[in-house]
Write a structure and sequence with these properties.
The chain has about 725 residues and is an alpha/beta fold. The chain is about 30% helix and about 20% strand.
Length: about 725
Amino acid sequence: MASTVAVTFNVDCSCTEHGEEVFLVGSHKKLGAWDPTEALPCSTSAATFPRWMSKAAKLPNGSRIEFKVVIRGPRGNRWEHGENRLLQVELPLAAEAKKIVSLTWGEAGVKDAEDEDIVGALPTAGEFFRRTSSPGGDGPLSKIMEPGTAMQKRGSRHLCRNNDGQVNQEMTRTPSLLLINFEKFNEEAARHEKELDAIEERAQLNRLQRKMKSTHLIERMAKITDTVDSSKMVLLQGFNWESWRSGGGDWYSVIGKRIQMLHDMGFTDLWLPPCSQSVAPQGYLPSQLFNLDGSKYGSQAALETLLEKCHKHGIRCLADIVINHRCGDKQDSQGRWNQFSSGMTTRPSFAGVGDWGGWAITLGDQYSDGSGMHAPGKADGKFDAAPDIDHRNPKVQDSINIWLRWLRLQVGFDGWRFDFAKGYGAEFVGRYCSKSHPAWAVGELWTDMHYDHHGLCYNQDKHRQALVDWVNATGKKSTAFDFTTKGILQEACRLTQFWRLRDCNGKPPGLIGWLPGYAVTFIDNHDTGSTQRHWPFPDDKVMMGYAYILTHPGIPSVFWDHIMDWGDEHRKKIASLLKARRDSGIPVDAPVNIQCADDTLYLAEIGQPPALRVALGPRPAGQPDMNYWSHGPNGHGYRVWVKRTATPQVYTSLGPTPEATPLASRANSPRSRKSEEGLRVGTEALTAETLKLMDSSQLRKLRDRLQAMLQATETALEMKRR
């Protein structure tokens, strides 16, 4: 048997244009070892175009070569879609054998030009003409098949003379039944039937498991996911960058002990950290997607227990979905970490889902083996720490859809937070949401804001337009974190430049000014704050920031550190703001009437009719009509007023206390019954005397308190009479 075979490739490539060239790149070094710069070139001529022919490449006899066709031109490299082509090089001839392989761009399979055995000299590239020798014309030629296949489509060979006078070999194109190995054929048939039976058995098992588990989950989750009202939603990020170190590797239990408190504070949604096995302990370099026991935050059982506890308290849970990139857990033959395992061990019907190879990585990535389908798309797909996933690959999409449905129906998550959303197209977020049906979703589209030599530019319309475009590209299947509002708000508070909080049209300058129903506002997260502090809100201005986002439209998000690690007083201040928002009942898209926005004061009324009034900055905002407004939370640099109701509420900068109980609820106490009339008369007299001194700024606070007492007393008396 010859040690090498001189293989010439004949490529029918009708999609080539002027200025483009055709190359073959593959697993063997003669084909560039998947390096497009070392690929085997092809040539053509005016007479043979669009057929291209390569020079002879000496390939080892008996080898299996994977390859693809690449078109190189002014527009860059264009790779064939689909699986790699497979060439089995095996010629039982003495001396150096030669072979012509014919193929067509975009069509699966590889075809012999003459047969597997070619004898005699081959025509040079550009001079090769196939003779149409059979009356029926050229039909499909035999594919090169893997050795050992039971039924091989072969033909007999004979010599013929081409139109140009050259002698060539030709073959008949009807398979010979004499070449069938019936013993192997029967073995393959039996094995195929067994595989079909196993597939059906796995499918039945899958249906049974899903029915038993999912029915219970769907009933439980439906109570809190089918009635999502974004106007009542408040999200808590339930972790920081160092949470994986806490709780002895069981962060889920740490959160679980605080669920009652979170419910009492008014949180409706909880964002949990990435739950899959990860190369990095924080979870943002995922590897085995289905392996939840490999997480540094706790086991799958602990996670499911936490989710069930949250659901019992009416709290939805969002999973952190990291799908821009993925870390391989095995190396390929070239030492690249691009072989992926799913980590699924308990569901036979999921076998192979998420088991990826180099084909799942975008072309041009440092981890790519060249067998992928696409280069990165319009989105910035660069992420140097791990292989970038090709979301345009249907196999990738199918795997992710199955994984998300599993998280939803098997594990019990309610929604998604999409990490590093700038790394892949927003349309894929829309597709994944359409397939997995989350209660809601939010994407992290963190892009650079616009600066000049003075610092942050006033106009950030381009930045928030990118957020609007992203939300629209998802088909409005997902909301987006309002990075525009964060950037402007923290700069306004840090520099005391509150003029930044009103755009040129008199509206809020962030996403909440354009698309409030799809804006998730926040102060900090595990990236911007925590121990990383990539873009932190000024620590001494954090409460001023919360006074803004918790009184304005959008879906507010609170960071774990600010209610758990910054002390009880800080938590009570945030709880008081949450209560004011809840009591006011402002909708997610409430209009904002900005009455002042200059260097030292921001003053706005939110809602129609106004339900909240907020002032930020060192300058006094003056007193509003206290017949309409009641005092709400206040603190360093901020003050909030809430629209009066039939039952006034009392707010303090330290949040709800026993003294903050509505006065009406104490109207029937013995003390109240004994002295209510005297209290009313005395309060009226004192208030009348005090109102004469209203020009004195020192008595303003006293005036407001007395008016509130009078109103509360009258309300209590009225309720008692009823």
